[in-house]
Specification:
Layout lengths: L19 H11 L4 H26 L9 H20 L7 H11 L2 H11 L3 H28 L3 H14 L6 H6 L14 H39 L2 H19 L1 H21 L1 H11 L5 H8 L3 H14 L10 H8 L20 H29 L3 H17 L12 H18 L6
Helix pairs in contact: 1-2, 1-5, 1-6, 2-5, 3-5, 3-16, 3-18, 5-18, 6-9, 9-10, 9-11, 9-17, 10-11, 10-17, 11-12, 14-15, 14-16, 17-18
Length: about 450
């Protein structure tokens, strides 16, 4: 049978050869509860992509353009530069230049990884596989967390923990970490309390896929399940993120009247969960301290973040151009701690990062870094504005996931850490690859 693309029998085109990319992407996300293994998958995926592109270059002289169109390649590379160049600029004057140089060198792995992710959504078939895979992972995590809420144990984390015992003779978490957990940890476990933020950032993939396949009631059921899990998971930042996801995705699918009913139901459900969960009541009581306890009450309500933000502003004043160095916040914190004589709300040790994206960028990479981030964001928005309706529709889940993850009016994990940085560049590459995929793919 003649191949319609090449007019040669049984020939696999380079674009068809990208079938492996969705596997890498979904595997990386599925393994995020095991950060070390997930990072290994990221690095191996980057190396595999570089090798694959080199072989294509030697074979047909085209290289990456045979798997990824030029516009998607350009935007992906620009977004990488907006993330990586601020780290490079922060080396000059950093308190620990060796550490920052190591961070800069390690950050280069993100460029081929982002190409890999963009390739994974470069055609309609690969995009469907990738987005569906991410939806399945997110759905399984949600069901697992609901089972943990009902039974007291996460089946997925228990399974991972048993494998760890068999392989090394000890579990994933210590007894102290298990005892100290004050929220629903889900598959991430009590020693890695990032479940809420990750689930909220990935929830658009689940809601868009379910809404497209099962309509309004499927979306409502999924939205309610994820919402319950996020309230029990205890991260207030994740609730802000998820509220934005619901507003954007639900408004398009349900319309204004249904969204109003959803918001009212959400308020009622939140009240019921608060009444039934001591941990949820405690977190809302802590939040209420912001309105009654003065400056100390605000700091307590924010889990010490006002103290951290004051230190970040100190770093910005002292290093305004290029910051204290990527991931140098913890080293600079003692010199900028506004209350060195007091025990911090979070316990012993310095603050590790600024817990807010704008302050993190300014403190660690300075005004230069912030301008580069803004330039990257402007290019991403410009690409959205000048794309057609079909391109926007296919990129909408990734666009929403990226937008709510970097939403500046929230608190955040460390964007220059391996864990949150890896997830952020993945979302950026999913957005670029899906938006600028070639027409007709």
């Amino acid at each position: 049978m003649q191949n319609l693309v090449t007019d040669r029998p049984n020939v696999v085109t380079p674009r068809q050869a990208g079938w492996w990319a969705p596997i890498w992407v979904v595997a990386y996300v599925a393994l995020l509860p095991l950060p070390g293994i997930a990072e290994s998958v990221l690095v191996l995926g980057a190396l595999f992509t570089m090798l694959r592109l080199l072989l294509l270059r030697l074979k047909d002289g085209d290289g990456i353009r045979s798997l990824l169109g030029v516009p998607a390649l350009a935007l992906t590379s620009v977004l990488f530069c907006a993330y990586w160049l601020p780290q490079l600029g922060s080396v000059v004057g950093a308190e620990d230049q060796g550490k920052v140089w190591g961070k800069v060198a390690a950050g280069l792995r993100y460029l081929p990884f982002m190409w890999l992710v963009a390739i994974a959504v470069g055609t309609s078939q690969r995009r469907s596989t990738t987005f569906s895979g991410l939806a399945v992972v997110t759905g399984l995590w949600t069901l697992d967390a609901l089972l943990q809420a009902a039974l007291g144990t996460s089946p997925l984390f228990w399974s991972l923990d048993q494998l760890k015992w068999l392989s090394s003779g000890h579990g994933l978490c210590t007894v102290q970490e298990i005892a100290a957990a004050d929220r629903l940890p889900g598959v991430f476990g009590p020693c890695n309390l990032k479940f809420g933020q990750v689930l909220a950032s990935l929830s658009p993939f689940l809601l868009f896929v379910v809404g497209a396949r099962f309509g309004r009631w499927g979306w409502l059921l999924s939205a309610a399940a994820v919402g319950v899990v996020l309230v029990l998971a205890g991260s207030r930042a994740s609730l802000i993120t998820y509220a934005l996801v619901l507003l954007v995705s639900g408004w398009r699918l349900l319309g204004a009247k249904w969204m109003l009913l959803v918001m009212l139901a959400g308020v009622v459900g939140l009240g019921a969960l608060t009444a039934g969960s001591a941990q949820v009541r405690e977190r809302f009581a802590r939040t209420a301290m912001a309105f009654s306890g003065g400056a100390s009450g605000v700091n307590e309500a924010l889990s010490g973040r006002s103290q951290i933000w004051s230190a970040a502003l100190c770093m910005v004043r002292e290093h305004p151009v290029n910051g204290v160095g990527a991931r140098g916040f913890r080293d600079a914190y003692p010199g900028c701690n506004p209350y060195p004589e007091q025990k911090p709300v979070w316990g012993e040790g310095p603050a590790l990062h600024a817990h807010q994206i704008v302050l993190e960028i300014l403190a660690e990479t300075g005004v230069l870094g912030l301008l580069l981030w803004i330039a990257g964001a402007a290019m991403a928005v410009r690409a959205w504005i000048y794309s057609g309706a079909q391109a926007r529709d296919r990129a909408r889940p990734a666009a929403l996931a990226l937008a709510v993850t970097v939403f500046p009016l929230n608190t955040h994990l460390a964007f220059y850490s391996a864990f949150w940085g890896g997830l952020t560049v993945l979302l950026a590459a999913l957005y670029a690859g899906a938006l600028l995929a070639e027409q007709g793919d």
